[in-house]
Amino acid sequence: MSLSLSERLDLVPPSGIRRLFEVASRYPDAISLGIGEPDFETPAHIRSYAKEALDLGYTHYTPNSGLQMLRDALSDKLRKENCIEADPDRNIMVTVGANQAVTLALAAFLRAGEEVLIPSPCFVTHKAAVTIAGGNAVDVATDEQNGFEITFESLNRAVTKKSRCILINSPNNPTGAVLSRKRLEEVATVAVEHDLRVISDEVYESLVYDGHKHVSIASLEGMADRTITINGFSKVYAMTGWRLGYLAADQASVEKMVKLQMYLDTCPVAFAQYAAAKALGDPRSRMAAEAMRFEYQRRRDCIYDLLKGIPQFSVSKPMGTFYIFPGIGAMDDQLFSEAVLEKAHVALVPGSTFGAAGRGHVRIAYTVALERLEEAMAKITRALPEIL
């Protein structure tokens, strides 16, 4: 018997990230390396565009699929940067953040009891979205030895008669893994052979390091109509509070998702959409995004070197995002995080928050200034003899 929405919501656990954030607030001097939010302000020119939009009267409803000017700009962006051909009137819609886009995407095709294969560790809201949409999330484990990249063998083994979708996130939260073209081709092979849809969360696409390139799976041969590509403005332009995302998919799926958005929240905020559309066409936006990427890479290099120097940690160098996911040995990651918060006043997220494959790890977000990052690591190092 299928569950009601209220019953499905009861199955979704509270966010372990938010819980830790609340506990950390008890320590006024705590350094939080837990919340994945850019510490940069939205670039001044984008804020100016929002003010311009208000003065121009962008204070009313927009089309359910989003402002035409934004969909046009996104179509151009997807073609040039992602090699995805998406008609602005048929294949693109604007959403209230990328998280909402994931739920809309699943609701467009997932039937009760069907399975969604998710490489684990994975972002906490992905599994929750599957549950809310009536499906069952299936963890497909990755490991530190393989740089947390999913393999063809593990993904193919996880497929059953109930499998309907593969949900990937590259660059990945929490591990920082970036799926190479070869790995994406393997995912595509599994999807085609077993007739599965693919949802590709690409919100960290601008944060890729060391000469690596982000590749959109929808750009691979035979994957355009099989893939729902999800992205947003929170990370690339530090626009987390603006709650603005978008997706590209086949026309039939977009029509269903637009219908759901119409009844759910009508449309995203009008003046935020205007600002995003103008930002996409402004070269200053690319410069700002690159400046943030450069600073995050500098911090990544720093914290990676610091962690490599601590014998109690094992660490894989992240190729993207602003997270690193070190192993902590045999100690329970929940107890370890609580002890670090109590003894060192530094907030980390237990790896098990992100699925069973995250056990024995912690997620560190390097979204604080370099000096604070170094201070936090020094405090943890001093506290380790007491903790371990």
Could you give the order of the helices and strands?
HHEHHEHEHEHEHEEEHHHEHEEEH
> In what range is the share of β-strand residues?
5-15%
Summing up helix and strand content along with how strands pair, one would put the structural category as alpha/beta
CATH third-level topology of the largest domain: Aspartate Aminotransferase, domain 2
**Rg, Å, rounded:** 21 Å
- Spatial arrangement of strands, main beta sheet: 2-8-7-6-5-3-4
Q: What is the total domain count? A: 2
Number of H/I helices: 13
Question: Architecture of the largest domain, CATH level 2?
Answer: 3-Layer(aba) Sandwich
State the separation between the terminal residues, measured CA to CA. Answer: 47 Å
The count of β-strands is: 12
On the 0 to 100 scale, the average pLDDT is 94
Q: Helical residue percent?
A: 40-55%
Write the CATH homologous superfamily of the largest domain: Type I PLP-dependent aspartate aminotransferase-like (Major domain)
Low-confidence stretches: none
Shape annotation: globular
What top-tier CATH class of the largest domain fits best? Alpha Beta
Main β sheet profile: 7 strands, mixed
Q: Any chance you could write out the topology, listing elements then pairs?
A:
Elements: H1 5-10, H2 16-24, E1 31-32, H3 44-55, H4 68-82, E2 92-95, H5 97-109, E3 115-120, H6 124-132, E4 136-141, H7 152-158, E5 163-169, H8 181-193, E6 197-201, E7 227-232, E8 245-248, H9 251-264, H10 270-280, H11 283-308, E9 323-324, H12 333-344, E10 346-347, E11 349-350, E12 362-365, H13 370-387
Parallel strand pairs: 1-10, 3-4, 3-5, 5-6, 6-7
Antiparallel strand pairs: 2-8, 7-8, 9-12, 11-12
